[in-house]
Every structure is written in C-alpha cells, then in structure tokens.
Amino acid sequence: MQERALKVLEFTKVREQVVEHAASSLGIDKVKRLVPSTDFEEVVRLQAETDEASTVLRIKGNVPLSGIHDIRAHIKRSVIGGVLSPHELVHIASTIHASRQMKRFIADIAEERTEIPILLDMVERIIPLVSLEQSIKLAIDESGEVLDSASELLRSLRHQLRSNESRVREKLESMIRSSNAQKMLSDAIVTIRNDRFVIPVKQEYRGHYGGIIHDQSASGQTLFIEPQVIVQLNNQLQDIRVKEQLEIERILSALSAETAENESELQVIVDVLANLDFIFAKARYGRKIKASMPTMNNEGRIALYKARHPLIPVDEVVANDIMLGKDYTTIVITGPNTGGKTVTLKTLGLCSLMAQAGLQVPAYDGSELAVFDAVYADIGDEQSIEQSLSTFSSHMVNIVDILEKVDFNSLVLFDELGAGTDPQEGAALAISILDEVHRKGARVIATTHYPELKAYGYNREGVLNASVEFNVETLSPTYKLLLGVPGRSNAFEISKRLGLNDRVISAARSHVSEDTNQIDKMIASLEDSKRQAETEQQEARDYLKQAEKLHQDLQKQMIEFHEQKDSMMEKAAEKASELLDEAKSEAEKIIRDLRKMRIEKHAEVKEHELIDAKRRLEEAVPQVKKSSKHLNQKTKKHIFSPGDEVKVLTFNQRGNLLERVSDHEWQVQIGILKMKVKEKDMEYISTPKPVETKPMAIVRGRDADVKLELDLRGERYENALMRVEKYIDDALLSNYARVSIIHGKGTGALRQGVQEYLRNHRSVKKIRFGEAGEGGSGVTIVEFK
Q1: Residue 462 has what DSSP assignment?
Q2: Integer Cα distance of 494 and 482 in angstroms
Q3: Distance of alpha carbon 720 from alpha carbon 542, whole angstroms
C-alpha cells in the first residue's frame, strides 16, 4: 500500500487516534506500525478479531489490560546472565499477573456461550507462570524494595542491622543530652554522613569528642564528627550492610536465573498481551466513532450505507450511501467547487484503508468493502516548490505514476481531474485518463467541475454520474451525495440570492446556450425526483420493518395461544377422565353389591341389565384429545415438495408450500400471509395438479363476495380480532372506501379491542361510532385512506 495514499487520505491521523486507546507500550508500538493488508484471508481474520473484541466490550464494558509492561529487554538480559533490578523484576511479575487475569477474563466470557474463538485461542497459548510471579512478589514489594521475607539470612541481617543502629543512636543521643552538649553542638541531632552516624560539632570543640571528621558545613563553623566511642559500632554496621547487599544481589541473581529459565513462556505472554492490547485498542476506537464491521469481498464491490468521515465530529458530519463495483465501476462527481466532493472521496478511500487494516468503519451494519491490492489517490494541492513544478505539473507526475501501476484490483481516487490548465484541454485530458483507468478494470471515483464530463457518464458503460447537493436558499452545500444525478451550476441562483440585478442575470442567461439551460432544468428535476424517491424509499423501509415485527409478534403469539389451548384441553380431558374413572369404579362397586343382593335376597335384577349398564358406563369415558403436535409425530413421514397443500398444525390453517428455506423448514403461503414453518408442524394434504407449479395468490376485485359489514356479535375476543384483520385485508383488496363492523354494546371489551386494532392500522383513515340509523355505539364505521 502506497505511503503517499496513507498520508493523503489521512490514515495516519486515524492511526494516531487509535494509539490513544492502547493500554500499554506494547499495544502502542503495534498500533504505530498498523498498515492496511492486501491479503483477503488476513483482512477477514483481522476484522473477525476486532469484532470479537467489540463483542467483549459490549458485554463487559472494559477489559483488564492494566499492569502490562514491555519486558522483552529484561528477558534478554536475564538470558545472557545479567542480574535484573528489583523494578525490572516487579514489571515481570506484574505482566505475568496481567496475563493470568486476561486469560481468566476471556475464558469466563467464553463459558457464558459467547462466540469468541479467536480471542480464546490466543489466551490458550498463555502458560500461567504462577511460581515465578509468587517468587518475585515474596521477595520484592511493588515499590521495588527487597523484603525481609526474601530469605532467612536477609531477615537475620536486617534484624542485626536494626539492633546495632538502635545501640548507636542511643549512645549518640545520650551524648547530645549531656549538660555541656548544648554549648559544643551546633544542633542537638543525630545525622548520617557516608553511611555512618555523626553529630554536628562546633569548630572550636572539634577535639572534645575525638573520632573521625566526615564533613563540614558550607561556612566551616560546623564539623560532622563520628565520635571515637561509636567508631567500632559504626564499623560493625558497615560490615552488616555489606553482607545485606551481597544477600540482596544473590536473591536478585536467583530470580533473574528463574526468569531466564522461563524465557519462551514469557515471550509468548508478551506477544499475546501485545496482540490483545492492539485488538482491543481497535475495538475501543470503533466504539468511539460508532463504527460497525463491514463484510469483506475480493471482487471489487463496495456498498457503504450512511458512511461518515471518521475525522469529522459525529454531530457535524453528513452520512452518505456510496455504491461502486457492481452495476458500475466508475463514478464521476460533477458540479461546482462547493465543498463535499473531496470529503466523499476521502470517506471512501479512508474507509477502505481502515477495513483492510482490521478497523471497523463508520457506517451502518451490512456495509460491504473490497480488499484492493492498492489504493491510489490524487487529492489536494500538489504544487512542489522544491521541484519547481506547478500544481498541474505535480498532479500529472502523480497521475502518470498511477497509470503505470494501476490494475483491475485497484481503487483510484481523482480529485478535480484535469484542473489547473486550459478548461477545454483539461476536460479532454480528464476523459482520456478516465478511459485508460476504466479500461484496466480499476474501481474509480473522480471529481470535476468540467461540464463536458457530465456526458461522460451517459456515453460509457459502467460509469455513473453523481453530484453533491447544494442548497440555494442557504447558499451552502448540504454534503449529500446524489448518485445518478450530475451536478449543475448554481451561479445564477446564487447571484440572484446575493442581490445581483435581474437585468444583469437575464443578460447572462442569454449568453448561455439553450441546450445548457435545458440540461440544468433536467438536472434540477432529477434532484427533486431523487430526494422524493429517497424519502419514499426510507418510508417503505420503515413500514417493512414494522410489518416484519408485527408479523413475527403475531406468529409468536398465535403459536403460544395454540400451544396453551392444546395443553389446557389435554389437562381438562385428563381431569374429566380421572373423574369418570372414579365414577366407573364406584358404579362397579354398586353392581357388585346388587349382584350380591340378588343372590342373597333374590332381588329382581337381571344379569343382562347389569352388563348393559356397565357397558354404557365404559362408553361414557371420553378419549383424551392429544395436541396436534403429538398427532403429527405419529403420522406417516411425507417428503414435501413445492406446491404441496398442507395443514399448518400450529395455526390450524391450510396453506401451500412455496420453497424450502432449510433442511427442516419451508416458506408457506397461508392466505395473504407468507411465513416460515417447520416440517414437524405441518401435515400433508394433497399434491397440486401438474399444470400448477406454485400456489397463486388471489386478489379480490370489486365483484368479489366481500360484504360491506362484518358481524362479530357472539364471537370470542381472540377469534373476533382474527376475523377483523382478515376482513380489513379483504375490504382493502376490494377497494372499499368505507365498511361497518358490528360488535354490539355488551361489556365494551370487544368494541375497545376492535377500535384499538383499527387505530393502529396504517390503511385506516378514520373510525367513528355509527349514527342513530346505523346502529349507534354497537357499530364502528371504518374509513380507509
């Protein structure tokens, strides 16, 4: 990837922003070396890594990446026999601890059934060096001081040291508390010089204490003397301090040797933590700019939805849809220099570079980008004073270089192509350059203010005109990209808004050819049509989302209703069966008693009458009706095919199979509804006639048998709402302007439910109660839009 393109498209600035989100020097170093990859498989993996990190951040909010240090130099020194300092060993222990924390953190998230296989595989490489970490922490505290607990000898030496220091201080303090000390001492304190305890003695009393002079004050009036009586004690202290230092060096040497033994494991820890910090830095940056993961392809297709330039504040940037590489491979953005065209170029180029570097892009979900071998950009003021080149010459030097290197897997961005020279020659050059790059199969976006290039998009296959919208009312660009609409000059409108005399404007219009005027009018009409189409398309998308949600909710509710109904019927039947079993048992007991009475007392009860009574009791026991799901499991397996008429058991409705969605799921047409149904929830009815290849949806006309009123009296609430929904659909298909729904007065529950449904129906214009002659409050009159 060209370094020049990275700079011109401001990828280096994005990289600087990503650096701010790294938690350690290891991550910062990797971010600073971040460049786009041209390998498709690698780019897909990089995007998957960032997406997993984004998932972790979304679930947990943050990750435990504190305490990581770059310990590679420490490891290397330990391997060649060097003795590490306490601070270096503390950094090693801290990094080991951070690796254990991170490994446990990622493993815990994976156990929660979150799919993060790449991150999980990374942390699986970490070998927790608990022993080395504990050895360092037992010997050295966080401030880098070697602890008494590092060894028994060190503990003993430090005990001796403290004991001897106490004895020395006691002797000196007794000396400075004596009666004549105040006269001979500059200050009644005990201090230290050259690691030996001394007292400050006035110059004239230097011979009184004897001993060794270690220092004197700046004025020379005070001498710091080690009295003769404590020289031996100070010597003992120094001897203990030497032994202490030797023991500390031995401890550090042993810990350094243990570090060297774990060199390979420590190198893996450093590599994994560096990668994790790097990946989460990219994910945190993506969260900051509200980015999403694009789908990557190696076929040159670009589809960015509501793409934003990442370096422009979110509350100021204008989002645009940018499509390239499918129906057309070249976009020519024409129009005057009103701003916005260059931003569009940079947005596309920068998003491509970011995606190939594994960064998420500031665009909506579902966006798609291609992996290019190279991205070339000729953008900005290219004047070179050092080379004595004009702006035009500098641009041409760059364009010549691009034409030599460009191929079918390149993205080329030209800003103001052909500018800086004679307009006619510049336009001709721009057309020939575009032809050459287009011929090589590259993906191209070029901006120009030459009107001659407006015709270029109409005369070349695979080329699309575009422009940036301009608001004449505010005299400023809206930065809205209009694909398929060429740019037009707004000079006359702007001049008029700024107060230029109408006579001057009319005279100027007379100098412009009629063809140019007609073209400008056509472009203005295209802009209006484009805006209206985009508004209607957005409304249609919103309606589609609402309809899909309503359909899913309805399907879920109906399934739950039927499952609940089946369950309740089963329970009721089972309860009834239990009651009848008890009655049957009691009846048999009575019959036995009657037989006994007949035998013993010769009662007039005949045997065939007893048998008949028993038979009738047995026949009275109801059969438990199982749910349709259970019945379906016992039916013979049928191999379904498109067009089969089936019964959807969950809804108890007939439908026709349209197509197989998956191994065990079909799309079924039930009336005017299409829904996905599992094979286990369907029952085969019949195969269509050979002439019919698929079920036909019937559209009702005015002559269809749809009445102008629907009578719901006596219906149950749920059933009534289903009938209302179907009746409204039939009435709309019959083009009725108004219908009546009879629900009666009653408790008002049915009336309220029907009217609530009608108020939320997008095709209903108005509802009202019937007049006196129409049924009053027992009838709702519905008017359609």
Answers
A1: T
A2: 20
A3: 28
Element (H, E) at 412: strand 410-414
Contact 321, 437 (CB under 8 A): no
The set of residues, in sequence order, having a beta carbon less than 8 Å from that of 643 and lying 6+ positions away, is 656, 657, 687, 688, 692, 693, 694, 695
- Which residue from 191, 168, 176 is spatially nearest to 240, judged by alpha carbons? 168
| Top-confidence residue, 38 or 517 | 38
Tokens of 141: 């505290």
Cα distances from 776 to residues 173, 491, 780, in angstroms, run 111, 64, 8
**Strand arrangement of the beta sheet that strand 374-378 belongs to:** 374-378, 410-414, 443-448, 330-334, 463-471, 476-483
- The pair of structure tokens assigned to 568 is 């309740």
- 366, amino acid identity: G
State phi, psi for 154 to the nearest 5 degrees. -65, -40
Distance CA 696, CA 693 (A): 9
Asked if 304 and 321 touch (Cβ cutoff 8 Å), the reply is yes
DSSP conformation class of 430: H
Reduced to 3 states (helix: H, G, I; strand: E, B; else coil), residue 647 is strand
Distance from C-alpha of 105 to C-alpha of 53, rounded to nearest angstrom: 12
Instruction: State the pLDDT at residue 576.
Output: 79
State which amino acid sits at residue 431.
I
- Please enumerate in sequence order all residues whose Cβ is within 8 A of that of 358, keeping only pairs 6 or more positions apart, or say none: 37, 43, 46, 47, 49, 50, 282
* Percent of the chain predicted with pLDDT > 90: 27
Tell me the C-alpha distance between 52 and 358, whole Å: 12
Give the per-residue pLDDT at 511.
Answer: 59
Rounded Cα distance, 784 and 764, in Å: 5
DSSP symbols for 314-345: TTT---EEEEESSS-SEEEEES-S-SSHHHHH
Phi and psi, residue 784, nearest 5°: -95, 155
**Which residue, among 289, 369, 277, has the nearest Cα to 44 in the 3D structure?**
369
Calpha distance 728→707 (Å, rounded): 11
DSSP string, 736-751: -SEEEEE--STTSHHH
Q: What is the pLDDT of residues 98-157, one digit of tens each?
A: 999 999 999 998 888 778 899 999 999 999 899 999 999 999 988 888 888 888 998 888
SS3 at position 300? coil
Cβ atoms within 10 Å of 285's Cβ, excluding its own = 24
- Rounded to the nearest 10 degrees, what angle do helices 117-124 and 40-60 cross at? 90
What is each CA distance from 390 to 379, 387, 393, in whole angstroms? 15, 9, 5
Instruction: Determine the longest span between alpha carbons in the chain, in angstroms.
Output: 150
Q: H helices then E strands: how many in the chain?
A: 24, 23
| Distance between CA atoms of residues 328 and 309, nearest Å | 23
Exposed, middle or buried, 373 (CB in 10 Å: 0-12/13-18/19+)? middle
Backbone angles phi, psi at 191, to 5 degrees: -130, 180
Tell me if residue 411 falls in helix, strand or coil: strand
CA–CA separation, 376 vs 455, rounded Å? 25
Which amino acid, one-letter code, is at 383?
Q
Distances (CA, A) of 326 to 90, 101, 376, 463: 57, 47, 20, 11
Distance, CA of 291 to CA of 307 (rounded, Å):
9
- Among left, alpha and beta (phi > 0; psi -120 to 50; other), residue 154 is alpha
DSSP string, 220-286: SSEEEEE-HHHHHHHHHHHHHHHHHHHHHHHHHHHHHHHHHHTHHHHHHHHHHHHHHHHHHHHHHHH
Structure tokens at 523: 């472009």
pTM over 0.70: no
Structure tokens that stand for 781 in this block: 């009159």
The position carrying tokens 């484009």 is: 530
Identify which of 5, 72, 63, 77 has the alpha carbon closest to the alpha carbon of residue 36: 5
Q: Judge whether 727 and 746 are in contact, CB under 8 Å.
A: no
Q: Residues 757-764: what's their mean pLDDT?
A: 85
State how far the Cα of 159 lies from the Cα of 151, in Å rounded to an integer: 12
